[in-house]
Amino acid sequence: MIGARSAIPGYAGHADTHARRLADQQVRAWVGERLAALRERLPLDGATEVFDDVIFHCEFGDQHVIKALEDARFGEAAPSAALEAADDRLLVAAASADTIDGAGLPAFLAGLRDAFAQRTATIVALKG
Question: What is the pTM for the complete model shown?
Fold first, then answer.
């Protein structure tokens, strides 16, 4: 299974606020790179709006996530593991971008949009 620690060289982890913010940027950049390659490989044919929505999540951090990541509890073992699991789920959702075809594009993008939403909800809920 793909994970942030194995897929992203120099993955910052979650030890402190700076590391958590950097890890958030690294995860979003990794997903964005998969999407950029997909856009070069496939025509978006009717999926442009959803693609743009998903790529927006890659380019700009969710302010709810950024604020939540400031909480020192994320440096503790259990919240850190849950945060990394949320990152990993997003990476797994994005990993098939390299092999997706035109027929599977709408479902892939919808799944990726849902993975971003789930990641945000998980992080905000962990903050409490």
Answer: 0.92
**Residue 98 lies inside a defined structural domain of this protein:** yes
3-class SS at 106?
A: helix
Residue 3 in domain: no
Judge whether 6 lies within some domain: no
Using left for φ > 0, alpha for ψ between -120 and 50, and beta otherwise, residue 45 falls in left
Give residue-wise pLDDT tens across range 99-123: 999 999 999 999 999 999 999 998 8
Token pair for 116: 């971003």
pLDDT in tens, 1-31: 688 888 999 999 888 899 999 999 999 999 9
Contact 30, 7 (CB under 8 A): yes
Structure tokens at 57: 């999540």
Q: Hey, is 100 helix, strand or coil? A: coil
**Domain carrying residue 102:** 13-127
